[in-house]
Amino acid sequence: LIFLAYMVGLSIGVHLLNLVTLPALALIYYFRKTKKGVTWTGIIMALLISSIIVLIINEGVIPGLPSIAGSFEVFFVNVIGLPFGSGIIIFSILFLGTLIYSIIWSQKNNKELLNTALLSFAVILIGYSSYAIVVIRSAYDPPIDENDPENIMSVVSYLKREQYGSRPLLYGQYFTAEVIDRKVGAPVYVKGEEEYEIADRKIEYVYDPSQTTILPRVWSSSGNHPLRYREILGLRKGEVPNFADNIVFFLKHQIGFMYLRYFMWNFAGRQSDIQDADWLSPILAMKETPPSITDNRARNNYFMIPLLLGLIGLFYNFKKHPQSFGVVLMLFLLTGVALIFYLNSPPVEPRERDYIYSGSYYAFALWIGISVIGISSLLRKYLNNGMTATGIATLIGLIAPVIMAQQNWDDHDRSDRYFSIDSAKNFLASCAPNAILFTGGDNDTFPLWYVQEVEGFRTDVRVVVLSYANTDWYIGQMTRPAYESEPFPFTLSLKQYRQGGPNDVLFYRNLIKNPISARKFIQQIKNENSNLRNKSLYGEYNMVPNKEFYLDIDTAKVAGMGIIPEDKLDLLVNRMNWRMKGNVLEKKDLMILDLITTNNWERPIYFNNTSRQGVNFNFDKYLIQEGQAFRLLPIENTSSGEFVNTDLMYENMMNKFYFREVDNPNVYYNEDYRNFILNHRSSFNTLAEALINEEKEEKALLVIHTSLSKMPDISIPYDYTSATTVELLFRLGEKDNAKEIAEKLATRSDEQLGYYIENDIQIGLEIQKHLVILQSLSRTMDRFGETELAEKYNNNLRSHYDALQIYESNRIKR
Q1: Residue 812 has pLDDT above 80, yes or no
Q2: What count of other Cβ atoms lies within 10 Å of the Cβ of residue 539?
């Protein structure tokens, strides 16, 4: 028990999922130790006690002890006036002294149960102390330091995962509920110069009681979540959900789509690696399928053999060994259905979440192993030779791992796959020296961190994650050096970026008619101008009195800096104008505004595709593409086309970019990789089109040929950006090459659309992509006089579109 407790403590540092195994382990302990025989009362008590232990560890040990230590720290520093760290030292002495005394006392007085419990608690803490490495590392201020957990207050927030917010579990709101009030809760402390200061207070929003319910499942009003709820539940616009919709969503989406689909991926088969792809049944696998679908290496068909073996093992285990069956079942349910209920997933996820339920799949895999014993037992009834029965059962049981290895090997083989690293290098290579590069999310950020930290590539570029820039700790990290990158120049102080302050969100209020000077606005924020303050239901915040901003430019100075391309000097403006995209500016937007006005063009500022969409300003006409990144400059794109620095982008993409093994057909590239490659294809198209517009056809043709040779169809199948490549080839006179690519694209889109519609496969984004491909190709053929092909592609488009309309109409009627 004590060793198990130590392993639990260590496992906390890996993942909290280990805690849900404790009820199953409690059953094992009960079944082995009970002397009165197994009873339902005993089982219930074992589960109840283990659940209490889980609760104590999850709520008491993990966040609870650091929270108490934090309260000691605040008291002894703020009230008593002792130095920082005094409260933690005093708490540690008192707590450890009490624990050690209790252990010694229990030993001397032969309190065996108490002594075991105290020792178990002690070794859990020893294992849990591995978290200290997080604090130690953070104290050294490394370039990558998420949440900055270097003092007790930030550590508590880190352990409670407060940055991820919370989800209602037993009682809460529907996604249509309106906020009618807010409750101000406990203070949020941050470390000041001499004491801990109250930066904010925890807020709990009060929703309209008529729009709240027990066991809320359809609760999120973020982004496109309401629209997706309505699509899943068939709710019309304005229709209010009810408790029945809660249950339907739980069964249909959270259980069906977010668990059973993944379960069947692992034990029946998987259709493809495309996000939202369904499981593959043997019946669907036997149907005639286009090569463009069967060629997806993640299309794995297990013929449901692992599932059937698992069910055999389950029933045999239940019949012959009900106690061990109960243990495995408990593990299966707690890491599966119970976890689904606890996580309360929203209707949209950024990526597939099958890995969350791996514990449940491990449990089911145990039944696959047990099935061998069950099959052997059955065969012994018909075969006189027990060894023969065992041998046959073993061979049958081996079918599952053998077929799974055969089906999965090609899409789990990462040999010679370098493009996550190479694409990161390509992003950084697109930037000028000492640049600042804004990124949007995990997938386009973590590879950049890797190549800088591990390979030391372009460490002069500062990578800034836009979503992190809504936090004070991350903005604080921008004010110190990282690798070869200098600190950021900011006008606002770190205190003005502090969490819980008036600059967390800035609401738009239409108070003045004329555009706002960005510099003056930042200066007014710095001076804490009371005219900008606005009280709302959400607190007191600064506001934005107009959506229009401007920034005056010293054109003579900028021109003399040599940052404007020579052929774009006539586009240099003496005033930049841009507009807010919505009605709210977030802290990240204020930080960008501060950076732009304070930096004064000294350091190059770049955005990638995701960050340019994520920032709440429309900078597009001032963003010029120089590779995979877009540079912000005081030059204005006056045309309707893309804004490209053709000379620099040509140099970057043709001479500095990496494409190792992308042309190798034996390397597997999943959907995430294909999307990165798609972005590169798109950039090559953009460069080629810009060169054509500048009447540099020879260079443009070389760019297209490079794109087709570096990222060929044989290794990376043509995608919807290839439809643009077809048009460019026509413009460059390569008619035959264009028609060959177009025919491959159109054939695949036609086949896949027909397959999806016929088999009721609902992957909306993929269907839209193929419709767009057919539409684009039809228009291109018509434009360049290929009327026969234009008519063919248009007829295919109309046929699939009409079929989809009929399908959607029938779905709504159902």
Answers
A1: no
A2: 17
The number of residues in the chain equals: 814
Of all residues in the chain, the percent with pLDDT exceeding 70 is: 98
Helix, strand or coil, per DSSP, at residue 626: coil
**Which amino acid is it at 754?**
G
Report yes or no: 680 and 711 within 8 Å, Cβ to Cβ: yes
Neighbours of 232 (CB within 10 A): 16
DSSP 48-108: HHHHHHHHIIIIIITTHHHHHHHHHHHIIIIIS-PPTTHHHHHHHHHHHHHHHHHHHHHHH
CA atoms within 13 A on the CB side of 372: 17
Name the 3-class secondary structure at 549: strand
DSSP 306-373: HHHHHHHHHHHHHHH-HHHHHHHHHHHHHTTHHHHHHH---S--SS--GGGGHHHHHHHHHHHHHHHH
- Give the rounded distance of the alpha carbon of 531 from its chain centre: 39
This prediction has a pTM of: 0.91
Position 808 confidence tier, pLDDT thresholds 50, 70, 90: low
C-alpha–C-alpha distance, residues 128 and 138, integer Å? 17
Cα-based angle 700, 703, 706 (whole degrees, multiple of 5): 150
Q: How does pLDDT run across 135-157, given as a tens digit for each residue? A: 999 988 899 898 888 888 888 88
* Cα–Cα dist 252/260, whole Å: 10
Among the ranges 18-27, 102-111, 758-767, 805-814, which has the highest mean pLDDT value? Answer: 102-111
